[in-house]
Specification:
mainly beta; SH3 type barrels; 5-stranded antiparallel beta sheet; 5 strands
Length: about 90
């Protein structure tokens, strides 16, 4: 299967996570929305992540690999779609 890495932004109640999600290059579940809406997926595996605490934006951590439980995800978007935050 031909794969691609998509830069995404994911938020939980406590953290903003930026990283790369591996998706199929084309076809079935190649769109972020299709991938995220898979009911049988319990975790999202991300690589090259930056984790920022929402209540303390100066607290930043980096991880080569991170798994995030689907039940904790409140927001997910392509990083190319822009940034969220207080204006």
């Amino acid at each position: 299967m031909d794969l691609r890495h998509e830069d995404i932004i994911l938020e939980t109640d406590r953290y903003r996570i930026e990283g790369k999600l591996t998706l199929p290059r084309e076809g079935y579940r190649s769109r972020l929305s299709d991938y995220v809406n898979q009911r049988d997926r319990e975790f999202f595996a991300l690589s090259e992540t930056t984790v920022t605490a929402l209540d303390a934006p100066d607290q930043v951590r980096h991880a080569a690999f991170l798994m995030v439980a689907r039940t904790h995800v409140r927001l997910v978007t392509l990083a190319s779609e822009g940034s969220f935050g207080a204006a």
